[in-house]
Design a protein that fits this description.
The protein is mostly beta strands and 158 residues long. Strand 8 and strand 9 form a beta hairpin. Helix content is 0%, strand content 37%. The chain is built from no helices and 10 strands. The protein has one domain.
């Protein structure tokens, strides 16, 4: 992905993920927000030039809930009104710094232009939904693989 804005809403079934990255997804520009089920969740490639953050909430976030991606200094990077119930969220933009800590919080408000639930502005709430380190793959899902290859192997438990 080199530019533009891509918003993926869903799917909500556990056998599918909002990103299906058979060949990996290297991001070098643009804005990506993908919200869906965490069962087969995948993250962008480790080799991405642009930072990305992947979060798995402790519970399913309900459709209609406003969530924000917030930097550790309180800067709101993105405000999203959930278009589907979701249990994984991936966000990438030029503002995301690899290795930095981010929070996904609920209870805020969205404002400005909107594309697929992603708003150009908004205020963060104070209900923490998840925390994540930019550049770390989703736990329990299928990672983007080194260099953007196929997702990593599944754990041997169960």
């Amino acid at each position: 992905m080199t530019g533009g804005t891509v918003v993926v809403n869903g799917p909500t079934e556990s056998g599918n993920g909002s990103l299906d990255l058979d060949g990996g997804l290297a991001i070098s520009g643009g804005t990506l927000l993908a919200a869906g089920n965490s069962g087969m969740a995948q993250s962008p490639a480790d080799s991405s030039a642009q930072g990305w953050v992947a979060a798995t909430p402790d519970w399913t976030v309900s459709e209609g809930t406003v969530v924000s991606v917030v930097a550790s200094d309180g800067t709101v990077l993105a405000t999203y009104t959930a278009q589907v119930d979701f249990s994984s969220l991936v966000y990438s933009s030029a503002d995301v710094q690899s290795g930095a800590e981010y929070s996904v919080v609920s209870g805020g408000s969205a404002s400005g232009d909107e594309v697929g639930g992603l708003s150009s502005g908004g205020d963060a709430g104070d209900g923490e939904v998840a925390t994540a380190t930019a550049g770390e793959a989703l736990a329990g899902g299928m990672g983007g693989g080194p260099g953007g290859g196929p997702g990593g192997g599944r754990g041997s438990g169960g």
